Amino acid sequence: MRIVRDTHIDFMSKTFIAGCLSALLIIIGAASLIINGGPKLSIDFKGGTMVAVNFTEPVDINKIRSALAEVSIDGQNFDFSTEEIKHFGDETNVAIRIASLDNEPPRFANRVAEKLATVYPELLPEERTDFILSIDKVGPKVGAELSGDAILAMLYALGFILVYISIRFEFKYAVGAIAALTHDVLITLGVFSVLGYEISLAVIAAFLTIVGYSLNDTIVIFDRVRENVKALKGASMESVINQSINESLSRTIITSLTTFLVVLILFLVGGEVIHTFSFAMIVGVIIGTYSSIFVASPVVIKMDKTS
Amino acid sequence: MQKSLTPRYLIIGIILAWAIYALQPTWEYENMSEEKKEELRTSGELEKTESRIIRQGLDLKGGMYIVLEADIPMLVSNLASIKDDRLENLINDAKDRSSGQNQDFFSVFEENVKTDGIKLSRYYHEYGASLEQIMTALNDEADDAINRVLEILQNRVDQFGVSEPTIQKQGNHRIVVELAGIQDSERARALLQSTALLEFYLVKNIAVTNEVITQLDNALKGDETLASTLKQDTKKTDESNKDDGSTTVSELFGDTETIVDESTEKENTVDDIFLEAPFSGLLSAIPGDMGIEEKNLYAFKKLLDREEVRSTLENANGQFLLSQQSEAVVTNAPEKYYRLYYLEKRPELTGGIVDEARADLGSLGGGSAGQPVVSLAMNSEGSRTWSRVTGANVGERIAIVLDQKVHMAPSIREKIPGGRTQIEGFADLNEAKDLAIILRAGALPAPVNIIEERIVGPSLGADSISQGTQAVLIGLASVLLFMLVYYKLAGTVADFALIWNILLVLAVLASLQATLTLPGIAGLILTVGMSIDANVIIFERIREELRKGKTPKAAIDSGYDRALTTIIDANVTTLIASLVLYQFGTGPIKGFATVLFWGILISMFTAVFITRTIFNAYVSNRTLTKLSI
User: Fold this and answer.
1) Residue B527 is part of a domain; what is its CATH number?
2) Which of A262, B17, B536, B617 has its CA 20 to 30 A from that of A39?
3) Is B220 a member of any domain?
4) Separation between Cα atoms, residue B106 and residue B73, nearest integer Å
5) Could you count the other beta carbons within 10 Å of the beta carbon of residue B332?
6) Structure confidence by residue, pLDDT tens digits, B281-291
7) Are residues A100 and A161 in the same domain?
8) With an 8 Å Cβ cutoff, are A219 and B569 in contact?
9) What CA dihedral angle connects B572, B541, B501 and A157, to 10 degrees?
């Protein structure tokens, strides 16, 4: 069985259209990021409290929202109705996210959970300990440190990879690869911003994996290019790259397909906790495959011409 | 060919045998019944098995993860032999600036001291004369303190009885505690965070107390803004706020939570009581003591924090402390009150005088019959002071205070010579037991704050395991099926290698005692998708070579040879990404990075080495004209 027969597609002639498409996607993402004042960060980076609870039957978010408009904890009044309250996984679960407070009363997260329990007292699980699904509390200082670490991690990964590819290939290939994966991360970030998904630690892990995956794909093509440059002495860089992409096209499609398949399954059945992680991976696999052909390769041609 | 294959068989055989050996305890453990586990646990054999199985992360097992940070600024302030506002301001400023800019507290503090020109030796003469000496000494004190905190917390957790707790230092001033399978997170949190500073204060008599309250009322009287704020803070919550954005209260206390609706009719008539007697207006009379109603607690604490109140109390040499928990004064009444005590500024007896602490139910005949109590035995120094203090103050009340909360304030009936006493005032026996643990383990040299806390309930953890396993199985099955259909016989070989890839990753996890987290499971799925790539690259190459008219044997040889560099180059970059992730990630993310790293590394062995061996064996003994690929 073969999906792709011998192909002779002139990929590099489509560079302009692809460039426009990429630019458009990046601009939309950037516009969304500017309008929203930067990416939507989870409490991992911003600090705050997130409480997820579990009722025995589907509940109404609006009823919970209005019940949380007036909460008194030790005489201190809070209005949580403007905080983010949403279903967590399915409709029986509810998650509330509260920004860091300066004068947080003791046992704050548990008090919020207790308040949530009073909204639907008849729908509580039999075991009291089953009510709270999870509590996450991150102090603002830790949040700031984690975001610093995450940015640093991305930069380190990019730096090491640049060095490795420069050693194994040539510098122009390294530039092409870095351009491709910066493109991938920017677009994924934009997609997250447009859809209003938040960036958590797990999403950063997904970003770094996208970096790894996108490179994997790019390098397989570059490897072919390196081989063909020797084999086809005198041919233009465009035609060498075109031939290389065509030769490795069936591999590109099959691997992208299997990887896409598994992350899609993870997205569908993996559960709420890694939902955004698997979503980032889905976007990353698609964009990563596209960018190896339409971003990394044209950049190498460009670099080749200028040198 | 046959000759060169033998060492390959040997290597593969040894590695596969090792994998089975490494995974066997996990397999056995997962299939063991609860009764059998219990039986082995009592005989002590279970630990041996448990040390060789794949450990599940807190996000799968349920449990709590807490990061505590020692309050170093507070420690530095406590170490000063004299205290004044100038030093306090420098410390507080250094605290704010160091946490805002992510800098070391001590370097900011030293800078502050230099700019201010304050003489530190005035405050820390025991620690040296020069600034350098004092800074070094304070730094040492902080290091020493965090190590003692670590030891004490270890002690507390050990006595609390959780299986496999981990308590580790992180950086200079932080401690990470992981408690698996904890059901009562609040109890565990209280146990960890309690400073366990036990103090005994004399309660000031009623006449003195009344006098200071009058003074406070006079100091605060006539402030209309304060009066309306108090009214706002103490009003019943059923008068709903209208969110019109006006926030006059915030101007006074920097409080952004409360929203005042100026247009509400009631707001215009300021309660006389809060104008005339702001302080006593918050107090209620309850049997035996003064009380603060629960709903007034926040307003009262803000009041205590005001400058006028602080200076008045400073001059009067006294302090107000609240009881540890609120209680209903009338049985079944909805209103609950905290007891309020006016105490001497200095404790009569403090800190490490506890020799032994035990939780019990109060003996019959006493006032605490059937109630949970903690019985204390003091050391000789404590006993002497205790007997002197009780002897000199018969008829007075003495408050037993733990971490700034009054547990009880009994009247002293007679001199107590033996250094024994009992603490009452617990919600249940567990709370008394925890206090006994805390007192036995000793007080923390510096207070600790929880700066990060993650709790996963048992039901969410169980869901994550089942959903994660399901995703792995479905993902694996679909990739296996795809390879089988697309590459036929060669696909079967790749499938065989892929299954071994997964098993080897699990075997490595088991023998490294690594922790499998939910992101780790995701990493496993990703490994399935990505590690098949090596075989796809090889097979596509072989097909290409076959199309060029090579024999199956030659096609396999050149296919593998030419694909190898591609596979290595492509995988090294993913390995770099996973190493960086491991270095920077915490908890669950580390789990993901570990699995991804080993998954990719092992895939190079299984997808290249194992499949090659199988192909070689397949083609070596016969002359093939066609290859099923």
Assistant:
1) 1.20.1640.10
2) A262
3) no
4) 9
5) 5
6) 888 888 888 88
7) no
8) yes
9) 20
